[in-house]
Write a structure and sequence with these properties.
The complex is a heterodimer of chains A (about 525) and B (about 350). Chain A is of the alpha+beta class. In chain A, about 45% of the residues lie in helices and about 10% in strands. Chain A has helices at about 1-50, 75-90, 145-155, 170-175, 195-200, 225-230, 235-245, 245-260, 270-280, 295-310, 320-325, 355-360, 395-405, 410-420, 425-435, 450-460, 470-485, 490-505; strands at about 65-70, 90-95, 125-130, 130-135, 160-165, 210-215, 220-225, 285-290, 290, 335-340, 370-375, 380, 385. Chain B has a domain at about 100-340: MetI-like (MetI-like fold, Orthogonal Bundle), CATH 1.10.3720. Chain B contains 15 helices and no strands. The chains are: A alpha+beta (about 525), B mainly alpha (about 350).
Amino acid sequence: MSIKKTLALIAALTLISTAFVGCDKNKDSSKASTSDSSSKASSSDGGDSSSSGGSSAEIKLPTSGKTFTVMSWNDEFPKMVANYYIPDEGGTVEIKPGEGGDIVDEDGNPVTDEDGNVKKKDLVVASLGDVEYKAQFFGVGGGQASQYYDAYFLSGEDVDLYCVEADFALTYLNSSYAAPLSDVGLTKEDFSKNYDYTLEIGTAEDGTLKGVSFQAAPGGFVYRSDLAEKYLGVKTPDEMQAKVKDWDTFKETAKTVYDASSNETALTSTLGGIWQVFSSARDKAWVTDGTLNISDDVKNFLTFAKEMTDNGYVTKVNQWSDSWYALGQTDQTMGYFVSTWGLKDTGTKNGNGFMTDAAGAVGGATYGKWAICEGPQPYFWGGTWLVVPPSCDNADLAKGVLEYFCKNDESMKKYAEKTGDFVNNKDVMAELVTAGTNKNGNLGGQDQFQVLNKVAEKITMNSSLITEYDASIKASFQTVYGDYVENKYDSVDAAIEAFKKDVATKNTDIKIPS
Amino acid sequence: MASNAQRRIKHVSYAKYGYFFIIPFFLVYFIFSFYPLVNTMRYSVEKNLSKEATIYDGEFVGLDNYKHILTSPDKNAEDYYVHAGMREGFLRALSNTFKIWVMNFFPQMILSMILAVWFTDAKLKIPAKGFFKVVMYMPNIITAASVAVLALKMFSNDSFSIVNNTLLNWGLIDEPIQFLADMKLKRTIIAGIQIWMWFGNTMILLMSGIAGINPSLFEAANIDGANSRQVFFRVTVPLLRPILLFTLVTSLIGGMQMFDIPYLFNPGTNRSPGTQTIAAFIYQIYMESRIKNTGHSGAASVVLFIITAALGSIVFYINRDKDEIAAKKQLKKLRKQAAKKAHGGLGL
């Protein structure tokens, strides 16, 4: 009998203890995060005093970490560090495709590809001296990054350098998760060759530089050169530019193409791309002084978008959807608005940008049939900023990576030549443009730098256009213009009203004027 | 004379061990169900979390959050857009939820009922019953995320989706059908997915209900010459009522909280409000807001809780066993009369 009792007691205790296992974990992690935040507070205090004391280029954050962790939403930058920086510093690198575990969505369910196989991450094994390199990425789009980042930061795990995208850069730059770059011994002077707008965005509210970008992201209009010749009779990018030099001409050209192709070919692929161009040219940010602004550009865009959709001058495909990629291999669209990151073309299977994928990869259906011109308005789209968190414990390596990709001419030039990425260095880009050696296979050998450098010079980037509200408000606006072109609202004003209400429910702390 | 040991045994009570066994359940319940429930109610009367989501400084705002959801907004008030946005969003979500649930529930019941009756009918002798049951239950095992991806591959606005591509190739349509843009069509597809996912489950439930009916009743009906329609309406349905009621209530509760398919059946992150259910509304005003919108989503959750509870009670009230209540009343009446008689008797 006593055995039975004991057994019952043990069983009950086991059950209870399982209930507490979760609690224990929580306690641990909360402990970790509190100690973390206190260390953050102290280190950011140190940062403030240093910035007031002038630009002394010494490293203030610890350099003793055994693991150097670079975090991003996708594998682009973590792999860049593994493929370029670490070998050049004499480290060892091995990349094992598909061995890094499953890619999961927000709910933790595995993401599958078209054939129903679970998508896998690549495993990056690398080390530099006695420091191990850890590529921490989630395999998601930049728009979803913050959910993963917040959870990762709260878990208190090691991170020494991380990437933020233009849409949500300010949220992190102005948070306790960003240390001034002076803490790793770098100042604004070090980045004097960067394009100005990238530095403006990287500067936090308190005036200290907290993020630098390794690429500038001027964008152009990429079009199918064969279709352009067939329907418009244009042979060079300059002739094409004349056909899309402003929005009115753009619309006329769209009509010509649509009619000439017997209603098959739309001049451009998505409204999202057009909005990207419009939004760079806005005269006011979404939110100023805690109040929402609806500028005329927003209303003009709605009218323009409706007209384009109603006439079939733009396809109904959604940006970033699978169809968006598939479209590039058909004659249903003639062009995409794409910025530098989409034009990377290595000529091999790996490391290509969006346009090469849309052409059906190297040697694909429309590979090599594209060309680029400036488009109706100069604009930039996206870009990735690198931020050092106050919890960084490999400050020397973080500094090294930042210098390698954002400061040193030699390494930046090497990277640009190899990948066709538009590096954030005016001198290097000018040199590359003059040399004219860059040839993009997907653009039929055209040098996109010639075009994009012209755009970059024209971008009068008003850094105040970027606010921490952008990611949320952009999402609301996408839904609204999507619904507006589907005739769900009677008028532009009705669409704007719906937009205001949606923004209000998701940003209860900003004022919305009637 | 009883020995000491015997006396002791008499006083041993085993009841307390029962409590030990149920303690884990109550602990888990209090930590993971009861506390969150109470906490949601607390959030619903407090201001939204501040920008730093880790710091909680809930400020009591009374019923403001409920006011935003339930009352009509004042055009001139400072909080007009929050108020109007919340109210319209909630009402739209409520009506979407109902529409999708109705389109899903009734066809699903009919389908499951027919299949359940066929599968349990001894006269029909359907071959490979087990195989069909498994196959029909199968969609329920697939995760909603995969089902949504599957459905998105089949239905989309452009000509790349399976259905549009096929119809275009066959020349049955000239333009791709706007499956995701036409909200009625989209809701119908969602309801269709729900039916496909759940009819197997409902069928199994109904079959177990039918199996619980005394077979001699069916035999008796057959001997008396009842045709299968009469057997169905006069024997099966009345005796199946408790199971039908159970299915209705669980489906109603599940339907009011419908989230996964309506939320996931959207291209990319462009989630148009036409198919937003209440649960998705709550999730979206919380997750997609830059500062965590705890107040309004808490209030909306509580309102959803009340609506579900009320609907559940109404269903139970309508479906209460009227015969039994009438019988009870009759009994009461008889007792009273008997008592009266007794008193009267004494009086005489």
